[in-house]
Amino acid sequence: MDIYGKTRRFVKTFSGRKRYNVLGAINFVTKKVTTITNDTYITALEVCEILKKIANEYRGKSIHIVLDNARYQKCNLVIDLARKLGIALEFLPSYSPNLNPIERLWKYVKNRLHSKYYNEFSEFKETIDTIVDDTTKGSKGFIDKLIGESVQIFDTFTPINQNTYVNRNDTSKRVA
């Protein structure tokens, strides 16, 4: 790839159109990441696969999963399976990825990948997997700070309508 400026520079980039998709869910408490990967596209089938994996891993526990509004996550296939598995799906408002804790992890992964060129695509994929796997080991302290108590949880909020919520514990703002 050429970069133009006062001096012409050449930057090594990985040629080709290879793809590595990582669909992940992070346990807010332990920071353990559950993933499904592929080299095609993420669809509702992959979302169903990760729901089954999570349901099996956390059997007997209350499970709430925060999702954005991607069509493949909000379709009837996914919603019906989640209901059968006893998983509560929490959909974020549109255009608010900053509210989803997993997005902080993806930013961390991208920053770790940013400054290195990978000669082989397999090395690139392996590096991503290693960074993600390290969330409960060597990087746990950093991940705890990145996805920690400063993330607000809205257990005390009740929906008034589709876009408005009220805090059940704040009596000064009750809606009659």
Describe this structure in words.
- The termini are far apart.
- The strands form four sheets. The protein has a two-stranded antiparallel sheet with strand order 1-2.
- It has five helices and eight strands.
- Helix 3 (101-113) packs across helix 4.
- The protein has helices spanning 44-57, 76-85, 101-113, 121-133, 140-146, and strands at residues 2-3, 9-10, 21-26, 33-38, 63-67, 87-91, 157-161, 164-167.
- The chain has a domain at 2-115: Ribonuclease H-like superfamily/Ribonuclease H (Nucleotidyltransferase, domain 5), CATH 3.30.420.10.
- Helix 2 links the parallel strand 5 and strand 6 (87-91).
- With 176 residues, it is of the alpha+beta class.
Topology, pairings included?
Blueprint: E1 2-3, E2 9-10, E3 21-26, E4 33-38, H1 44-57, E5 63-67, H2 76-85, E6 87-91, H3 101-113, H4 121-133, H5 140-146, E7 157-161, E8 164-167
Parallel strand pairs: 5-6
Antiparallel strand pairs: 1-2, 3-4, 7-8
